[in-house]
C-alpha cells in the first residue's frame, strides 16, 4: 500500500514529466487502494469555537444586534461544533450579545444534540404540541432582553423568521451577515490547515485518476473513479463533475451523452471537505494529442490565473480581480464582458466551510482583500460548439499577499500542478 510520501511523489512526477500522454490504466484489478492522508489532522478546538462566539458578540455590539439565530448548517457548526440537520422540527442556536449561547431543540432530540455539543449547557426543549419560538423568547428574556434586534443567519428559513416575529413582536429582525460574515470570512491558521489538507486530497486524487482515463469512458465512469479516490484518501462530502468535448463549453454541464474520444477535452471540477472545510479544483486535460487551438486556449486560461493572482493585492477591492482578467481576455479577442466565446461567469468565489461563500471575484465587489480571505481562481474560457477550458486553484490572502493552496500546472503536457 503506498504511503503518503509515495503518493505525493507520484503526483509530483506526473506534474513535471513533459509530454506524458493520457493512457489507460493497465487493469482496474491492479490498482491499489491508497492510504488516507488524514494522519495528523487537527479538528477545530473548543477554545477556538468559544473565541468565535466572543468575536460574534463583539460584532453584535458594534452593529447593534442583540442576538443571532442559527439553523443547522455551516454557521452553526462554525460557532458551536454542533452537527445537525434541518427538518420541520426546529433545532437552532441562539447567540446573545451577552451571556452564554443556548440551543433550542425537540425534547426527543436532546440526547443526540448534546452528543454533538462541544461547549455550553443551556438546552431548551420543546414537545410536539409546543412552540420552539417560545423557547427562543425565553432565552432572550433570561439574558435580559425585553426588546431589541435579532439577526438571522442568511439561510434561516421563512417559517422560522415568521415564528420568531410572532413570538417576539417587540424585536426587529435583520440580517446577521455583518456578524457571521465578519467572523467566517477571515480564516484562522487552523482553518487554513484543514483547507490545505482538503486540497491535498483532491490534487492527489487527480493524480490517480488522470492516468486511468481511456476511450469510451462516460462522465459517470470518471466521476466514480474520482469519488472513490478522494474518499479513499480521506475526503468527506466528496463531489465531482466530468465534462467531455463540446459539453466542456457548458461550465456546469449538460445532459447530452458523452464518451471520451481521441483528441477530446476532458474538463473536471472536483472537491471534498476535511472537518467541514472545502477544496475546489478544476483541471482540463486532452485525451491523446491536443490540437493547436486547444493548447492555445489552455495556455491563455493559465495566464488568466496569473493575471488574477497578481491583481489580488491586500486592500484592493475584490472586484478588481475580475476586471483585470476580463481586460486581459479582451486583448486576446474574448468578450467583452460575459459574451461568448469568453468568460461567462465570475473569476472566482469565496470558499471555506461552504464551497461558495461571500465575497467573490466579481465586477463591482467593493470588499477589500485582507489576510485570511480565501478564493477560487477560475477564469475559464468557453467556446460554444467546440470546447471549454477551466483551470481552478484556490488561494488565500496572507500578510504578504496571495498564496496558493495548490499551484496551477504550467502546461497541458503536465496538467496536474502541485501543492502550494
Automatic annotation (TrEMBL):
Residue ranges occupied by any Peptidase M24 domain in the UniProt entry: 194-398
Signal peptide boundaries: 1-24
Domain of life assignment: Bacteria
Residue spans crossing the bilayer: none
UniProt keyword annotations, A-Z: Signal
Record InterPro entries: Creatin/AminoP/Spt16_N, Creatinase/aminopeptidase-like, Creatinase_N, Pept_M24, Peptidase_M24B
Creatinase N-terminal domain span: 52-185
Pfam families in the record: Creatinase_N (PF01321), Peptidase_M24 (PF00557)
Protein name, as recorded: Xaa-Pro peptidase family protein
Lineage: Bacteria, Pseudomonadati, Pseudomonadota, Gammaproteobacteria, Cellvibrionales
Amino acid at each position: 500500500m503506498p504511503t503518503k510520501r509515495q503518493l505525493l511523489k507520484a503526483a509530483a512526477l506526473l506534474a513535471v514529466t513533459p509530454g506524458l500522454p493520457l493512457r489507460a490504466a493497465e487493469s482496474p484489478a491492479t490498482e491499489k487502494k491508497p492510504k488516507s492522508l488524514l494522519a495528523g489532522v487537527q479538528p477545530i478546538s473548543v477554545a477556538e469555537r468559544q473565541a468565535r462566539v466572543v468575536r460574534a458578540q463583539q460584532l453584535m455590539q458594534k452593529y447593534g444586534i442583540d442576538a443571532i439565530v442559527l439553523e443547522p448548517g455551516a454557521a452553526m457548526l462554525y460557532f458551536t461544533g454542533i452537527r445537525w440537520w434541518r427538518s420541520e422540527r426546529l433545532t437552532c442556536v441562539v447567540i446573545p450579545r451577552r451571556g452564554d449561547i443556548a440551543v433550542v431543540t425537540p425534547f426527543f432530540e436532546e440526547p443526540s444534540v448534546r452528543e454533538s455539543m462541544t461547549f455550553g449547557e443551556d438546552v431548551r426543549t420543546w414537545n410536539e404540541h409546543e412552540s420552539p419560538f417560545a423557547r427562543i423568547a425565553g432565552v432572550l428574556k433570561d439574558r435580559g432582553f425585553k426588546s431589541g434586534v435579532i439577526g438571522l443567519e442568511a439561510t434561516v428559513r421563512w417559517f422560522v423568521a415568521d415564528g420568531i416575529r410572532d413570538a417576539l413582536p417587540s424585536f426587529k429582525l435583520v440580517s446577521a451577515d455583518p456578524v457571521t460574515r465578519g467572523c467566517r470570512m477571515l480564516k484562522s491558521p487552523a482553518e487554513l490547515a484543514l483547507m490545505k489538507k482538503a486540497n491535498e486530497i483532491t490534487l492527489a486524487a487527480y493524480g490517480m485518476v488522470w492516468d486511468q482515463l481511456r476511450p469510451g469512458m462516460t462522465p459517470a465512469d470518471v466521476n466514480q473513479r474520482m469519488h472513490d479516490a478522494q474518499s479513499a484518501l480521506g475526503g468527506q462530502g466528496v463531489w465531482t463533475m466530468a465534462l467531455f468535448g463540446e459539453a466542456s463549453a457548458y461550465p456546469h454541464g449538460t445532459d447530452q451523452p458523452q464518451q471520451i474520444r481521441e483528441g477530446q477535452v476532458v474538463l473536471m471540477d472536483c472537491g471534498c471537505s476535511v472537518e467541514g472545510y472545502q477544496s475546489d479544483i478544476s483541471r482540463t486535460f486532452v485525451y491523446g494529442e491536443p490540437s493547436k487551438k486547444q493548447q492555445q486556449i489552455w495556455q491563455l486560461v493559465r495566464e488568466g490565473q496569473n493575471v488574477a493572482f497578481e491583481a489580488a493585492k491586500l486592500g484592493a477591492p475584490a472586484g478588481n480581480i475580475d476586471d483585470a482578467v476580463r481586460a486581459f481576455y479582451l486583448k486576446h479577442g474574448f468578450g467583452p464582458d460575459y459574451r461568448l466565446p469568453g468568460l461567462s461567469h465570475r473569476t472566482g468565489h469565496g470558499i471555506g466551510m461552504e464551497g461558495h461563500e461571500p465575497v467573490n471575484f466579481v465586477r463591482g465587489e467593493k470588499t477589500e482583500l485582507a489576510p485570511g480571505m480565501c478564493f477560487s481562481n477560475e477564469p475559464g474560457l468557453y467556446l460554444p460548439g467546440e470546447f471549454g477550458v477551466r483551470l481552478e486553484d484556490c488561494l488565500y490572502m496572507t500578510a504578504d499577499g496571495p498564496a496558493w493552496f495548490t499551484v496551477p500546472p504550467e502546461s497541458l503536457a503536465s496538467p496536474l500542478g502541485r501543492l502550494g
